[in-house]
Write a structure and sequence with these properties.
Layout (H helix, E strand, L loop, with lengths): L1 H17 L6 E8 L2 E8 L4 E10 L5 E12 L10 E13 L4 E5 L2 E6 L5 E14 L3 E13 L1
Antiparallel strand pairs: 1-2, 1-9, 2-3, 3-4, 4-5, 5-6, 5-7, 6-8, 7-8, 8-9
Protein name: DUF3996 domain-containing protein
Keywords: Signal
Organism: Caldithrix abyssi
């Protein structure tokens, strides 16, 4: 129990700093693995922090938190369209189940920023590595949408 509390306490400053600015902070939904609430905080024109507080349905269904540092590019081998950004990054995930899990994530995705609305839609594939309680590779995927304040 103390380990779970410590992990949540370590993630709180990241979530609070992400919500501290206007117009570069988005909040919305994520559907897939996991399903719940998603946020994204732009740090620069090409970097951001994103995360989710969501429900995982893999194995023991339970609350799952994750946070990622992302880098974005508007072109990928001559695939470039207005409003489309490709991204990749690294992050951490924590699942609070009967046997809690902690691991790393490597999100790979695409975001579409709507030109006339403060919205984005995204699709991502996320290879991962669980470290606690045992080491194993994972693969997750999700779609979602966020509104920017």
């Amino acid at each position: 129990m103390i380990k779970k509390l410590l992990i949540v306490l370590l993630m709180i400053p990241m979530l609070v700093s992400a919500a501290s600015s206007s117009s570069s902070f988005g909040l919305g939904i994520i559907l897939g693995e996991p399903t719940g609430i998603s946020f994204k905080k732009w740090l620069t024109m090409d970097s951001a922090i994103d995360g989710a507080a969501a429900w995982s349905f893999v194995g023991d269904a339970a609350l799952r938190l994750h946070a990622d540092y992302l880098l974005h590019t508007s072109s990928l081998d001559n695939l470039s369209h207005e409003g489309v950004l490709f991204y990749y990054g690294i992050g951490i995930k924590v699942k609070f189940a009967a046997q809690s899990q902690v691991g790393g994530r490597i999100p790979l995705g695409i975001t579409y920023e709507f030109p006339k609305a403060p919205l984005d839609a995204f699709f991502e594939i996320v290879p991962g590595l669980e470290l606690i309680p045992a080491t194993k590779f994972t693969l997750a995927g999700a779609i979602g949408m966020r509104y920017y304040f």
